[in-house]
Amino acid sequence: MRERRKLIVVSNRGPATYGRDGQGRLTERRGAGGLVTALRPLVAQHDVTWIASALSEDDRQLAAQGTLDRTGAEGYPYRLRLVAHAHRPYDLYYNVVANPILWFVQHGLDGLHERRLAQLDEAWSDGYVPVNAAFAAAVSEELDRDPNAAVFFQDYHLYLAPLLVRKRHPDALMAHFVHIPWASSDEWEALPTPIVRALHEGLLANDVVSFHTARWRQAFLDSARALSLEPERARVAAHPISVDVSEFDELAGSQPVLERERELVARRPDHLILRVDRTDPSKNVIRGFRAYERLLDRRPDLVGRVQMLALLDPSRQAIAEYAEYRAAIEREAGIIEERHPGALRLRIADDFPESIAAYKQFDVLLVNSLRDGLNLVAKEAPLVNQRRGVVVLSENAGAFEELGAWVVPIDPLDVDGQSAALEYALELPPDERARRTEAIAAHVREHDLDRWSAAVLEDLDRASTMRA
Known about the structure:
The protein is α/β, with parallel strands linked by helices. It has 2 domains: 6-241 and 451-467, Rossmann fold; 245-446, Rossmann fold. It contains 20 helices and 16 strands. It has helices at 34-38, 40-45, 57-63, 87-106, 110-113, 117-145, 161-168, 185-188, 193-204, 214-226, 245-252, 255-267, 285-298, 320-339, 352-361, 377-384, 400-403, 415-427, 430-446, 449-467, and strands at 6-10, 16-20, 26-30, 47-53, 68-71, 77-83, 150-154, 174-177, 208-211, 235-238, 271-278, 306-313, 344-348, 364-367, 390-394, 408-410. The chain has an 8-stranded mixed sheet with strand order 5-6-4-1-7-8-9-10, with helices on both faces. A 6-stranded parallel sheet has the order 13-12-11-14-15-16, with helices on both faces. Strands 2-3 form a two-stranded antiparallel sheet. Strand 11, helix 13 (285-298) and strand 12 (306-313) form a beta-alpha-beta unit. The longest helix has 29 residues, at 117-145. It is globular and about 70 Å long. The mean pLDDT is 94.
């Protein structure tokens, strides 16, 4: 039987958020985002205390009660500690430093972070630093209660917290997983050196620092050495995250998905090109639309026989750059619709059953992100696809490192190249299409979410053994 470890999981978003129903009763809703889903095996298999931000007013009220005993959706017990930040510091932390500045720099969106640099000094000192300090204080209190617990930090929101915890608990066993790409040392020069140094020093205070790919791992090592920092304590690793295979198998046959699938099949053309993304500038939606439009212009015989279905989840609309990009997406879709009526269907909504239904029905999946830490869509969709669908995948998506042998590769900046790749994917022979899809699905089933979490925890075991 697998050993149940004591783990303190730390992330900005937690596994649940709270509100009130029409009768004023407290309601619990599963936390949004792939990170919460990815960490569910840890909650199921280990003794977990989860520390996260209080995001709603009811979250803030619960935060005042301290650490709470909770039960996850699958019936597993865990403890939840919500940290209530003051509104202004949290806004600076999340809406200026984490998103968009760190996100834009780490995704290679050079032009977008520049408009925010005038705000950086204030947002850093009055936002990112105090919010990280609040997280570190909560972790330290949990370690005071149980010094044997290991700490597992998540992502770019918490780069400073590990060093703050290390100063108070020098013997704490800590890991940090960075789920987004790591920028090159040249790209980090866009930010003030003291800030960049602090980010690296914070991560290097962990015993284990992990990324999804060898590429992002090496980029971190290179940027640290450019600052004359060496990972003396930290083991730096690469473990690509995956999906809960059983969950997707169950979802694919669920009633909400089957209903959406019937609607999709009733109106689908001969060939369906799918993209499932967020309305995030890093997802490169507009170039993908233009590549598709060029395909229609070059191949008039496909008009009326092919359709692109774009299912986009609205992302961070409180941030101006994201709202502007969503508006640009809608304008571009309107141009294509005017020139080729019915050739493109754009849906901007948070509708996961619709996405799963589309996963089952695509002939070509387009993932042309400018840069991704991994990109789970490229793994999820082939897992349940029933039409021998072909994946057209950006070489800058972290998933390309694993799936490159079975996808049609593209340069995310080359619109003509993406257009040609879509055409090539549509015309692949059935046997070759099946070979590629089945290979990706088999890989994902073997390298599943449990395997990812086990690999991360094995790194912690090695770090603990090296200390002994």
